[in-house]
Automatic annotation (TrEMBL):
WD repeats: 25-66, 67-108, 109-148
PROSITE patterns in UniProt: WD_REPEATS_1, WD_REPEATS_2, WD_REPEATS_REGION
Superkingdom of the organism of origin: Eukaryota
Keyword hit for Zinc-finger: no
Protein name, UniProt field: SPG16 protein
Keyword Repeat applies: yes
Gene3D superfamilies: YVTN repeat-like/Quinoprotein amine dehydrogenase
GO cellular component: axonemal central apparatus
GO BP field: axoneme assembly
InterPro entries according to UniProt: WD-F-box_domain-protein, WD40/YVTN_repeat-like_dom_sf, WD40_PAC1, WD40_repeat_CS, WD40_repeat_dom_sf, WD40_rpt
Keywords of the record: Repeat, WD repeat
Organism for this UniProt entry: Leucopsar rothschildi (Bali myna)
Length: 148
C-alpha cells in the first residue's frame, strides 16, 4: 500500500501492483503537503496548507483528530516510532510535537529564521531533524526542546 496527498485536498491509499485506489480521505480545506502512516499501520497523519494536522483512522475511514496551533501552512508531518507523537513543520517558522493521546501540543520548537519545510523523527529516539528555507538543518532533543 502506498499513501499520497495532493493539491486536490485529498489523501489516497493505493494498492500495488495493480495501482487501485483503496481509500480516499477528504476534510482539509487546502492542499496536502505531507502524509504518513502510523507505525502500527492503522492510522495516518496529514499536514496541509489550511494550517492543520489531521489524524485519520483507516478502519473508520475518517478524521478522528484535528490539531490546530500553527499560524501558517503546515509543510510536513512525521510519526514517532512509538506511535504516540506526531511532529509538524510550518511556514510560521516553528515545528510542533503533538501528543496524540492527550490531543495537544507538547512542545513548540523555535529557532529557524524562515519557513520550516520538513521534519522527521530519528528512529527510536527523542531526536527530530528539521530543514528550513533559512538554508539550515537542525537536530532537536524534544525532551529538552533544545538544539543539539
Amino acid at each position: 500500500i502506498v499513501l499520497s496527498g495532493g493539491d486536490d485536498r485529498l489523501w489516497k491509499t493505493w494498492g500495488f501492483p495493480d495501482g487501485n485506489i483503496l481509500l480516499t480521505g477528504e476534510g482539509h480545506t487546502d492542499w496536502l503537503s505531507g502524509c504518513c502512516f502510523r507505525p502500527s499501520g492503522t492510522q495516518l497523519v496529514t499536514s496541509s496548507g489550511d494550517t492543520t494536522v489531521r489524524i485519520w483512522d483507516l478502519s473508520r475511514r475518517g478524521c478522528i483528530l484535528t490539531l490546530r496551533g500553527h499560524s501558517r501552512a503546515v509543510r510536513g508531518c512525521s510519526w514517532h516510532s512509538c506511535g504516540d507523537f506526531v511532529a509538524s513543520a510550518s511556514m510560521d517558522g516553528t515545528s510542533k510535537i503533538w501528543d496524540v493521546n492527550s490531543e495537544r501540543c507538547r512542545y513548540t520548537l523555535r529557532g529557524h529564521e524562515d519557513s520550516v519545510n520538513s521534519i522527521e523523527f530519528l528512529p527510536f529516539s527523542s531526536t527530530v531533524l528539521t530543514s528550513s528555507a533559512d538554508k539550515t538543518l537542525s537536530l532537536w532533543d524534544v525532551r529538552t526542546v533544545s538544539r543539539l
